[in-house]
């Protein structure tokens, strides 16, 4: 698959069931699926490492919040930067550089 944005225009399959084919859902924007998948993969790996190291729950919650932010259609840069700084303060500086670079592709 090429690294491009994909867009589906018109009705989504199954959207006109029971409406005589007249209902339309509008445009569905898929976006950069590969970038989101890369960020989520990094966050999942980090969460596994943190679970194995038995870190405080608040650190794992920050990773979960980052994961939720990555799944948003428009991730908020200020929220993401705050959470990344929070994790960097807890001794995860090197991992956060990779994660920050991956998040930059989403903005």
TrEMBL record:
Per the record, the domain of life is Bacteria
Q: Where is this region: Disordered?
A: 1-23
Q: What is this protein called?
A: Uncharacterized protein
Q: Which organism is it from?
A: Lentzea flava
